[in-house]
Amino acid sequence: MTKMALANLNAADEAGFMAALGDVYEHAPWVAQAALKQRPFATLAALHAAMMDAVRAAPPEQRLTLIKGHPDLAGKAARAGTITVESKAEQASAGLDRLSEAEFAQFHRLNDAYREKFGMPFIICVRRHSKDSILQQFERRLQNTMSAETETALGEIFRIAALRLDQRIEATDGLEVHGRLSTHVLDTQAGRPATGVMIELLELSANGEQRMIARATTNRDGRTDEPLIAGRPLPIGRYELRFHVADYFAGVGARQDEPPFLDVVPVRFAVAEPEGHYHVPLLVTPWNYCTYRGS
Amino acid sequence: MTKMALANLNAADEAGFMAALGDVYEHAPWVAQAALKQRPFATLAALHAAMMDAVRAAPPEQRLTLIKGHPDLAGKAARAGTITVESKAEQASAGLDRLSEAEFAQFHRLNDAYREKFGMPFIICVRRHSKDSILQQFERRLQNTMSAETETALGEIFRIAALRLDQRIEATDGLEVHGRLSTHVLDTQAGRPATGVMIELLELSANGEQRMIARATTNRDGRTDEPLIAGRPLPIGRYELRFHVADYFAGVGARQDEPPFLDVVPVRFAVAEPEGHYHVPLLVTPWNYCTYRGS
Amino acid sequence: MTKMALANLNAADEAGFMAALGDVYEHAPWVAQAALKQRPFATLAALHAAMMDAVRAAPPEQRLTLIKGHPDLAGKAARAGTITVESKAEQASAGLDRLSEAEFAQFHRLNDAYREKFGMPFIICVRRHSKDSILQQFERRLQNTMSAETETALGEIFRIAALRLDQRIEATDGLEVHGRLSTHVLDTQAGRPATGVMIELLELSANGEQRMIARATTNRDGRTDEPLIAGRPLPIGRYELRFHVADYFAGVGARQDEPPFLDVVPVRFAVAEPEGHYHVPLLVTPWNYCTYRGS
Amino acid sequence: MTKMALANLNAADEAGFMAALGDVYEHAPWVAQAALKQRPFATLAALHAAMMDAVRAAPPEQRLTLIKGHPDLAGKAARAGTITVESKAEQASAGLDRLSEAEFAQFHRLNDAYREKFGMPFIICVRRHSKDSILQQFERRLQNTMSAETETALGEIFRIAALRLDQRIEATDGLEVHGRLSTHVLDTQAGRPATGVMIELLELSANGEQRMIARATTNRDGRTDEPLIAGRPLPIGRYELRFHVADYFAGVGARQDEPPFLDVVPVRFAVAEPEGHYHVPLLVTPWNYCTYRGS
Questions:
Q1: What residues of D are in contact with residue A292 (Cβ under 8 Å)?
Q2: What is the ipTM of this complex?
Q3: Whole-prediction pTM value?
Q4: Ranges of H-type helices in D69-145
Q5: What is the tens place of the pLDDT at every residue in B199-256?
Q6: Do B259 and A236 touch (CB under 8 A)?
Q7: With contact defined as beta carbons under 8 Å apart, do D205 and D270 qualify?
Q8: Angle between helices B146-168 and B60-68 (to 10 degrees)
């Protein structure tokens, strides 16, 4: 999707503005309407703040209606395809569109329990989460009081809106909604970057599923040409990096046992801050390695 | 099985000696008979050497008969239970008694190809191998010449005999047929041994199977009370150590993210020398770790 | 000095007992006299406890006399050679017999200030200290109250006595007055112990002095045949281990730059627990190294 | 010194051109004269190549005169101040202007031996060297044949010229005559960059001298705001980085012993490639550290 420049948004007529931002808040074009009058916006952050202010300034019933306008996570509407395009893509990002029957039943049970306690749908910014962390948040937030939970739901709606703005509007500033995952392989046997190391990144699920989400080969500097993940939040969850070091060392003629002591080195770690920078390097010889959370 | 003291073996009458060692060489009591006359043996190594000398001194046809007296690996006789007790236990140690149909067919095919080329059964000291490394050796040795392969088969028979002697006879010396796998966990955040870390050892197969073969918890010195493997060869193959470090750090009150950056740390490595000492320690904080082949 | 067996001490006549232990407490044979009546002692710890009990049970004036019977540290009596043989050897262990004029003056000043405030000599178990840590304790303890300082002085006298007993009496138990400093060099380029690495241990002083106190070469296991320090307390202070790794790597034919990136690797650390076990290993390639406090 | 833009050099009249480059080759304006006719130069590399070509195209006697026009290193002319400004600054960069009498005598002896064997002065691009490596090269090159040494001397003259061009002329390309030394401190106890760590860089001499050449404090990213050395060659020689880690850990409230196990961590390494990028990071807790040659 081509992004619209903030300057053009500032200059757009009302119809153009509403076409661009009317659905940033789910089924609540009144939020964009309120922001429309505040133009021009010098920054994306100012636009985002104006929309949040409109929500906070609205009467409580209107805020509740906004909350209630959201679809259930992995709910029947999602299955039936009757939710908004944005919601659909967001739910898919966390794998909510490919649940097993057991998982679908678990979401169903949690949705019901949540609706019964709070009278509203469970809202979470799914792009910042994996299936596992959504379920964990679900269980945890079920313990909240009504007022704490209303606040939490609004916070998540603001995060969803920030990500939608980030995807649509081009500006000189950013909303700091992106994380980054990168790596670096140092051949400490030869004292130089390890070039040509194949690396895979997998997302791990509590149920044992492993999903390959990136694959790259290290360049002359021992890095991947692009970060393994960038330009979006890092979903909270567990990951595994796999470094194919035996192939690399065979390629540079290093002495290895047969079979080699180290072959594919797995490094398992969790992301806890979706907007964080995770640098997970490997210092490696055929006989030892170190890894760490760098920056 | 209680071991017999070498002194008692030296003092035993012929029946006692043959009862103890008659089947060290498969279906070949003549090897023990030859050694009987060399008594007394000062060391186990001397006994082993005397038996090997008897084999090497025998006419070529007798050596070939010795070789041919061995059962097929994972063959029909093994399935039918008509092989010697020793062979049965040895084949089970490498998992040859629990092959899938596909694997059984693969062994069947290799056995046939080997018999067709060499006119004898494929012999390997299975206690030094995993299923994967047996298959690898099988493919590799099929490329040998007849004379090289006869030498190789004899060498394997000597290794089998050494392990049988090691299991039966108690002496002041050893035959250096044991390997050792040990670990050590250092908490480099606190500068002390990590006590109470749960550790699992798994054997990995090329087909994705993972079999738990040891489990232990680190003691006050960060070590396991017993080596993870000792008193026997380390089967050539791939392994994974799993260190449950998030539980440990939670227990000592260290600050960790939620979810913790490191949880269960997997360290994958291969054993290439069954009689080697593999020390695979972990130096770990909640944010980094190093591992290496130590000694 | 040959040690006396505890059994012999138990069986000795009064003269023999007093000859052995009469001067364990400086100028205070009454302490040994009191212990004499408690014989036999099953353990060295019991003997040490009996002597401490005698001191604690004595009238306050007698305890003060005991304290006052000690010589000044690095005082005029020490210079003039009129202190007991034991005190002389102990003061020499921390280098108090080779002070510069400035240091002598500093000790003189501190001794005077201490005597003026507390009316007794400054007592410290010098075998557990370096010159630097003695001066640090001196400054710190000058801030104490009279009663706290009397307790501290007695505690130090007990430590001195424990070390004297440890040096003289052979028993099945020990008084846990020994520390240990050891090292280990792993060649993580080759995945094996580094054999033949020259290692030096230096004691560092705040004034920049460096004194070589041990030198060793690693054996087949990458360790030194004997710990670098053992059988005595480790003096609190700063140390430097020097690992001659370029010579080692040249010897094993490893590729190095000219000049080699790493040559003599210095590892500086402090000892804070004189009775602790300090294991300070080096994991090293020609291009990187790790070191840590192990156990 | 303000640099002259390459475009301006291309547009300059002959006097301007010669003023800028006439002394790039020592006492040999004819080299610049030859290049003058080749203008315009698209790149600095092309200018450098044109000047080298002029030297290579000159008759052998003229090349020898060029070589002989250089002053002795640390020679009497340098002491008397009668050498060119450029030579003087270059010799000072390696400390040749502050030699001890013994070192001056050593240079004198080597200069004499070299002149006697080769009939010309010893020429080396001193900005790429330390005093120690100059002496080492001196001894080594004294073993050369006349023709090899003439080639070596010319190569050094070209390096000197490249550095002089690099300092004077601004262009879009560079002559790749700069090295870089940088560092990075990771607090692996807390899993984040170590901010506020004081770092010193010292140049070490074989005679035990230590000269502080840079000092910096790590920023929010654990790096120094500027590389420790950049914009010039890294002199071949030995260096020590000193990381003040005890102060850092005290500042962030980490538990340390008294005295702290690690205080100022010294990392000694050598530079062998003056145009190389040396990244020497530290991964550190109060109880362990790793360092390596990175990139």
A1: 186, 188, 191, 283
A2: 0.94
A3: 0.92
A4: 76-80, 85-93, 101-118, 131-141
A5: 999 999 998 999 999 999 999 999 999 999 999 999 999 999 999 999 999 999 999 9
A6: yes
A7: no
A8: 70
